[in-house]
Design brief:
With about 100 residues, the protein is mainly alpha-helical. It has one domain: DsrC protein, C-terminal domain (Arc Repressor Mutant, subunit A, Orthogonal Bundle), CATH 1.10.10. The chain contains five helices and two strands; from the N terminus they run ββααααα. A two-stranded antiparallel ribbon has the order 1-2. A hairpin with a 2-residue loop joins β1 and β2. The relative contact order is 0.18.
Length: about 100
């Protein structure tokens, strides 16, 4: 675990760079986290996915994997990979400040 300052807020990150405490997340942090993942700028479509990931986490306690993300969000898998080339569910979860979804490598 490491400590980092993201958008002016000191937070703990796990070994893969995910926020340890998702309640510390803010939309300002999302923009900085996205830049770190080379997803910049965040478009409205990116925000749709990020907000969806947060809602799913808040409702179920975990973020969806890619297949469920596409099915539940209505955004096709191909577009998800265009928005988040390094892996949609994992990258979107990191930007959304939630833990890495189960099944993500």
């Amino acid at each position: 675990m490491t400590t980092d300052t993201i958008a002016g807020t000191v937070v703990d990150l796990d070994d893969e760079g995910f926020l340890v405490d998702p309640t510390r997340w803010s939309e300002d942090m999302a923009a900085e986290l996205a830049r770190r993942e080379n997803v910049d700028p965040l478009t409205e479509r990116h925000w749709q996915v990020v907000r969806f990931m947060r809602r799913q986490y808040e409702e179920t306690g975990s973020g969806p994997n890619v297949r469920m993300l596409a099915k539940l969000s209505g955004i096709p898998v191909k577009e998800l990979y265009q928005l988040f080339p390094k892996g949609p569910a994992k990258t979107a979860a990191k930007i959304a400040g939630i833990p890495k979804p189960r099944g993500c490598i």
